């Protein structure tokens, strides 16, 4: 088989004018690209709602392969695994042994699980698993919004633990709304937000290591994102469309400015940052330069911007103004305003009843919110199934190419 699509242009340039004159190499490259495009379309058509049996079958096979790969990787790092197991045994012993240390052990357990939960959600959001679904919209954003609304209603951020963070209940002594500020609410959700941001930074590492290994080995990896990056570099001269020029701008900033360029790109909501890991790996940017700047940008700078936006949006006076504006809509305003007002009133009542048995009026707004979240979670799971099934289909295509080469 001829060179792959990403390296075809490079090979053609190295081939010189003779191949260009007879057109043989150009034809081979075109056939390779057409074949790769066809294979990509075949993989993308492998969806649960179109081919459920095949998708589930491929998903299970890909899951087994991933388990095997991770088992081999853990065996290669058995020293670190053994140290981790020893620490787990020590912690388990301390956890099950009665004594005055139990209070500290339980506190560490609670904080560790809480941090691991948000880091995991951040990794899922950054890696995406082929879904494009942002866990900030599903989990962290609603959590910050709930804390914001509760803080203004309770006049305090000292929610009793437990049940917080699983459930928010106003403290019995109450407080004054004037004591609530943006900084106090931000400090209440800082741990969750920073852990989620750290997870998104960790999720940028796989493409970095992939591109770095490919550059050091001199091979062109069979990865669509990497191929897109190399094609972007090939077409850099004379690029006119906005997306290509924007990607090149990110690439030049990362390459020339280094740490501060990566920090600037990671500190703002930047959809083009997806290629930053590949860019840094391709140009052999040191690991701690890339990861350090990404971690600071995503876990500290950008997360404070996002927190501030959500807190301001869900502040009490702004929410009341939004409900008032809904009521001013001609004809349908009153009917739309009523369910929103009922929903907010029900949430206020729940915050002031520790038993959680408030007979809150169920309305169609809360029902819709619950169903929307449920649909998004189901879509998230199905998208993971689709992505892993497509990964297995790609394995089959690569295996078929190798068999053709050996014939």
UniProtKB/TrEMBL annotation:
Basic and acidic residues: bias regions: 10-22
Residue segments, region Disordered: 1-22
Domain of life the protein comes from: Eukaryota
Record keywords: Membrane, Transmembrane, Transmembrane helix
Transmembrane segments: 79-96, 116-140, 253-269, 275-296, 308-329, 372-393
Protein name, entry field: Vacuole membrane protein 1
Organism, as annotated: Gouania willdenowi
Gene: vmp1
């Amino acid at each position: 088989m001829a060179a792959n699509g990403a390296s075809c242009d490079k090979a053609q340039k190295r081939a010189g004018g003779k191949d260009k004159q007879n057109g043989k190499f150009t034809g081979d490259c075109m056939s390779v690209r057409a074949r790769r495009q066809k294979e990509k379309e075949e993989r993308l058509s492998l969806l649960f709602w179109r081919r459920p049996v095949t998708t589930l079958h491929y998903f299970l096979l890909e899951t087994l392969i991933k388990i095997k790969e991770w088992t081999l990787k853990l065996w290669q790092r058995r020293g670190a695994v053994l140290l981790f197991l020893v620490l787990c045994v020590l912690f388990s012993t301390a956890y099950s042994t009665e004594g005055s240390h139990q209070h500290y052990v339980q506190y560490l357990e609670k904080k560790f699980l809480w941090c691991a939960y948000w880091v995991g959600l951040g990794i899922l959001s950054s890696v995406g698993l082929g879904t494009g679904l942002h866990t900030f919209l599903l989990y962290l954003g609603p959590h910050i919004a709930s804390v914001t609304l509760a803080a203004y209603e309770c006049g305090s951020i000292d929610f009793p633990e437990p049940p917080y963070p699983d459930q928010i209940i106003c403290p019995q002594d109450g407080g004054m709304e004037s004591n609530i500020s943006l900084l106090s609410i931000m400090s209440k959700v800082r741990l969750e937000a920073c852990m989620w941001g750290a997870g998104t930074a960790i999720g940028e590492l796989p493409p970095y290591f992939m591109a770095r290994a490919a550059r050091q080995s001199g091979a062109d990896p069979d990865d669509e994102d990497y191929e897109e990056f190399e094609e972007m570099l090939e077409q850099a001269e004379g690029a006119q469309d906005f997306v290509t020029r924007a990607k090149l701008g990110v690439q030049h900033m990362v390459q020339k400015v280094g740490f501060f360029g990566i920090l600037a790109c990671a500190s703002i909501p930047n959809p083009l940052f997806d290629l930053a890991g590949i860019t840094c790996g391709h140009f052999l940017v040191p690991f701690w330069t890339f990861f350090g700047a990404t971690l600071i940008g995503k876990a500290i700078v950008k997360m404070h911007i996002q927190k501030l936006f959500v807190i301001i949006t869900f502040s009490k006076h702004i929410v009341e103004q939004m409900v008032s504006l809904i009521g001013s809509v001609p004809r349908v305003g009153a009917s739309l305003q009523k369910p929103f007002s009922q929903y907010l009133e029900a949430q206020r009542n729940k915050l002031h009843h520790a038993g959680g048995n408030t007979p809150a009026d169920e309305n169609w707004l809360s029902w819709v919110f619950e169903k929307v979240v449920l649909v998004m979670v189901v879509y998230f799971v199905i998208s993971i199934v689709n992505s892993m099934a497509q990964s297995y289909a790609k394995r089959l295509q690569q295996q078929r190419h190798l068999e053709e080469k050996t014939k």
